Amino acid sequence: MVEILVTGEAVERAAAERATVTLQSRWQADAPEAAMTLVAKAHSRVSAEARAFAESGAVDTWHADRVWVSHHREWVGEGQPQRLVFTASASVTATFVDVEALGTWIGELGAEQVHEVGGIAWSLAEGTERELASRARSRAIADAVARAADYAEAAGLGAPVVRSIREPGVEPPRPLLAKRQRGVESMVLGAADAGGAVELAAGDIEVQALVEVGFSAEAASRGD
């Protein structure tokens, strides 16, 4: 009996269905009250809009941080006393299922100096991800069976029989074109600075399956 150990792999792809973005409200001032007041007002508006998007179904989940204040000393010039600067900041993170609504929101808020739009993380709905993972696993097993059969035939062995199945670490779903994705995020930030709705294109997400399968095969019987 001969042991055959092979790795089967498969990838399924689907268009991204969800977009998670973090929008930070941030301001600096010479006094903590001035920075806090402006950011609290801006943050309240962003939170209210995120809540409204959730109620309309455009946003799946969202959460808001509390406003906080920090300070640092800023160099002014040679021989000049350092300036004490206070920074107030708060952020809202929302996962959109309506990409068009997200583009409009980014265009409106990103044009205001108090707001900073972060990059977008694209993902699949849980049901879609589970379905793709299931299909990928089935194809990975079929790939392993085909590989083992090729090796057995090449070595003059009989049909291989499955003895063990092991799933090593599998990478989480990821955008198909990472370089293109970074370009899209840069476009989002630039368009937000200019104002107006931002047109977003997510691309596809990959779901990968990887499996190690152990087989055994007997030497093929020879005729007289």
Number of domains: 2
In the predicted model, the low-confidence regions spanning at least 5 consecutive residues are 177-192
Count of beta strands: 9
CATH secondary-structure class of the largest domain: Alpha Beta
CATH topology of the largest domain: Translation Initiation Factor IF3
CATH superfamily of the largest domain: Protein of unknown function (DUF541), domain 1
Strand content: 35-45%
* Helix share, percent: 25-40%
Tally the helices: what do you get? 4
So, CATH architecture of the largest domain? 2-Layer Sandwich
String of helices and strands = EEHEEEHEHEEHE
Q: How much is the radius of gyration in Å? A: 27 Å
**Which class do the helix and strand fractions yield?**
alpha+beta
The quaternary structure here is single chain
> Per the principal axes of the C-alpha atoms, what is the gross shape?
elongated
Report how far apart the termini are: 21 Å
User: Major β-sheet, in short?
Assistant: 5 strands, antiparallel
Mean pLDDT score: 87
